[in-house]
Amino acid sequence: MPDALSTKRTHRLRRDAALLLMMAPAVAYFAVFHYGALFGYAIAFQDYVPFLGVGGSTWVGFDNFAQLVEDPAVWSAVVNTLQISGLQLVFFFPAPIALAIFLHSLTYGTVRRFVQSVVYLPHFISWVIVVALFQQMLGGAGLLNTWLADNGWHAIDIIGNPSAFQPLMVVQIIWKDCGWGTIIFLAALYQVNEQLYEASAIDGAGYWRRLWHVTLPGLRPIILLLFILKLGDILSVGFEQMFLQRDAFGPEVAEVLDTFVYYTGVAGGDWGYATAVGLVKGVLGAVLVFAANKVAHRIGEEGIYR
Amino acid sequence: MSILSRTAQPAWLPKPSPLLVLAKAVALVIIVALVLFPFLVVVSTSLAPQDEVIDKGGWVIWPDRITVQAYQDILAGGIVTRATMVSAGVTIVGTALSLVCTTLLAYALARPGVFGGRPVLLMVLFTFLFTPGMIPTYLVVQAMGLLDSYSALIFPVLVNAFNLVVLRGFFQGIPTDLFEAARIDGAGELRVLRKIVMPLSKAAIAVIGLFYAVSYWNSFFTAVLYLNDSSKWPIQVVLRQYVIEGSPLAGSIETQEAQLSAVNSIQMAVVVLAMLPIVVIYPFIQRHFVRGVLTGAIKA
Lengths: 306, 300
Prior knowledge:
The complex is a heterodimer of chains A (306) and B (300). With 306 residues, chain A is an all-alpha fold.
């Protein structure tokens, strides 16, 4: 009965007219800047010249993609990205879990809340300031080296030293976001049934056994969820952080995929090629989230969607 | 909520040893110091008089005397003053626009069975999986003629999908009876939103507002990407130019070796200025984080 269906539709449309109007601005935003922008990927198949526009530039098929597979600069950026992501997974990912468990164990609510307020703060400080702070603390004329020199010791070369780059990136992100990361784990910790702790303690389980058999299983779903999200994001390592420090440390260590796209495309003028690199990165990222979610389902967890 | 209440030592746990308590206290002091020490040095150096900064080798941990000379210098109408105004303007206008658009869509999507609700929600959720990269977005901004305009700092980031989903989750937690009663009384949607939903969601809206305000205030790369005209730069870009890259501020200060330490005070004053609004607003919003954000996020 298509007629009855369409009358029902019209009825719903009329009933929800006000709501649809309320949706309009945000929907227009997503339509233009997220979906309209997808058309911009057309230039990945072009030798794009800004002056000629998408209409006037030459179509080159998959040439840009063929080129990127053989470009050592792309591979170097991939390796740098994966190395930093790997270090983040090993050192930055578990840090908020550990800090949350520690904060959770504090008996005095006032002390805990004060520490929480303090450790959340750096999350809200811009990367420009964070990089400036680290430079002022650890740089050549910074506080640490000034202090070392005053005491007659040798200076430590950190800022600008390529071999210090990757560890420094991880230290910076731990400083900035470890505290903020505890919020979600703390919430999960408070949802663990108190009686489980009590029962296991009475059964003779010590602190570490309770941690292993009660606390960690309670955190498991949220840890897995965030791990999946992180895996999907493994090709992005904090664009602004890298961008701000690329020149000081040199592109050999500091060029990651996102900065490659900027310096090759926007700054270097090779627009079509850079867009192709960006497209491959975006598609791989989506595939990674899919795959990680599949694995989560396979091992019987919720994942991020069904 | 148990998370906000004071946790006491449970009765079944044996009293912790004094050694453990001491170790925990030391760990806490170290954590807090690691976070706060850089802030202390920056604020102290910015407030110290020039001769003291030179005496102490460029860095002051606790100033003997306090002067606001550095702040007077940067706020005297030069490029920093201008950039601060730009950032403040973009933050105020952007946060207002973002909050309005996000709240309206979140409210509509929180209503069960709304016309077009499902496709719109899917449209939002898909952006978590794939977001257009830098260059396609740049092309849209260019095509709309927004390059070199302040709008380019706002419109490309107008609605954040995460904030939207969180707020929708929060709205869904409001008992539907309240909506129905108001609607039976003949209240329109906008009225229900303003008179019933928003007063009940103050904490969530405040937190989402803070998130937007912080992202606009901290906005750095959008300005680098979309604004060529350096007179339009916001404070974060000027900060990068002046503190990280070490270029002199046009027309205001000369960076000579002898003046390096004085420059330190001024650089640090710029850093303080660039983080001041956040540090000032932060304590007022911070207590809402858990209640405002988590309840929404967990439901979503």
